[in-house]
Prior knowledge:
By secondary structure, the protein is α+β, with helices and mostly antiparallel strands. 34% of the residues lie in helices and 22% in strands.
Amino acid sequence: MTVQAGPQPLAQERWQHRPLVLAIPDTDRADYLTFRQQMDDHRAGMADRDMVVYVVTPETARRNGEPLSEPQRRALVDGLAVRPAEQAEFILIGKDGTEKNRGPFPPSIDALFEQIDAMPMRQRH
C-alpha cells in the first residue's frame, strides 16, 4: 500500500522518516502507557532509525505528540484503513511510503528495530 498525497500527513514523511502508526481506542490504555514508556526508553534507537510516531484514536491524532487536524486524522484513518475504536493495531511505513508491517497493538520494539535494520535503505545508511 502506498500512502496518498493531499491532507494525508504521511506524505510529508516520504524519503525522510519511517512512520510508526498506532491506531488505538484511547491513550489511557495500560498497554499504550507501557509501550509509550518503551518508546521513551528507546528514543535514541528510534531517532537513529528516523522513526516518527503517529497515535490515532477515534477522536484525535498526534505526530510525535503534536496534534493533527481532524482532516489529517480522517486521512490517516481512511488511507490506512484502520478502525481505532474497534481494533488496536500498529502499522510501520517505510521511507518509500509503503506499508512494511501491520499487526495487533502493541508491537515489539526489538522486532521493529530488527525489521528496519534489515531494510535495504537502512543498510545503506
